[in-house]
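Any chance you'd type out a single protein's sequence alongside its tokenized fold?
>
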Amino acid sequence: MFATLSAITGLWSARPTKYVIGAVVACGAWMYISVLNNQIEALQLSNQNKEQLIASQGNEIDWLNDSIALANHATKAALYEVEQRELIAQQRLTKITQLNSQLSQFKLKLNALEHTDEHVQSWATEPVPAAVVSLLNHTRANSEDSNRGASAEATATTTTHASLSYASHDSDYQPRLGDPDWRAISSARNLRF
């Protein structure tokens, strides 16, 4: 570069040449420094943007960590509730099984009672014989005579006649097996022992 300047001006040793060269070097240095300053400012701005981005991402990470903690807490609570419901369901199934077992045992006992004693079943469904009714009425009448007198005998006679007429006029009544004979029971209620 100096060779070109000295060839053009021919005055390398002259003072104006030194000033021109100094001015060119100063302009170059100033331009280089301004470019470096622009690059430094751009890097500082980029660093500030990155720091802001890091801060915002840090806040987002904190928020996500809090959300994860809340979700974990909610998950634990839900798991606890599910476990409690499973425990309750298991207890319910156990109780249902026990009750079904008791029900089947009671049904077996009931069936055994229904089918074992045919004599008791037939006796319970048949009407009370007239002879038994008259015997019971006679016994009652004798005990009431000793306690009450003639008014008790009239009541016993009325009850006996009603029971006997009910038993004798009811020849077409056929009770079903296993059903109580309500007619016989209602007439037996009038009897006093």
Confidence is low (pLDDT under 50) at residues 159-176.
